[in-house]
Design goal:
There is one protein chain. By secondary structure, the chain is mainly α. It has two domains: 72 residues, no CATH class; 69 residues, no CATH class. Helices cover 66% and strands 0% of the residues. The protein contains nine helices and no strands. Helix 4 runs antiparallel to helix 5 and helix 8 crosses helix 9. The longest helix is centred in the C-terminal third of the chain and has 17 residues. It starts with a helix and ends in a 7-residue tail after the last helix.
Length: 145
């Protein structure tokens, strides 16, 4: 599936009510108002495709970024690439999906967790605290809380 085909499908899946809800929660106008379940269903058709996911991410469209989080292979990122991606987020729903589907599976997440906790960037700090909460539950030894 091409980038153009994906955007065509996202546009067709959009609705005004979801657009308004996203807008109320802080999303930009660069969105279609697609329901999250529809984005998940689309990702199942496409499967993991890191290159395509990066193209979707670069569009800065809300739904394209949400879809990208489901298509990305976190193992293919460097620390700098992951840091840049996290800091580029402007909408909390995208941040939450990025943390849940990409950041938590990033091989060097512990290093970035520590760095992000010191960051002034709100999305980096959010990712750092998200990873810290996961550590508290799964492996709290050595955490300085």
């Amino acid at each position: 599936m091409t980038l153009k085909e994906i955007f065509s499908q996202l546009k067709a899946l959009g609705n005004d009510k979801m657009f308004a809800q996203n807008k109320k929660k802080g999303a930009s106008d660069n969105q279609f108002g697609v329901r999250l379940g529809d984005i998940r269903a689309l990702s199942k058709k496409i499967k993991t495709n890191h290159r395509l996911a990066l193209e979707l991410w670069e569009s800065e469209n809300v739904e394209a970024r949400l879809l990208a989080t489901l298509l990305i292979d976190p193992k293919l990122f460097s620390n700098n690439e992951m840091d840049k991606m996290v800091k580029s987020v402007t909408f909390v729903q995208v941040a939450d999906w990025l943390n849940a589907y990409v950041v938590k599976n990033f091989p060097n997440k512990e290093y970035l967790r520590i760095e992000w906790l010191k960051s002034n960037n709100p999305m980096a700090a959010r990712a750092g605290w998200n990873l810290t909460a996961q550590r508290v539950v799964k492996n709290p030894e050595g955490l300085d809380l």
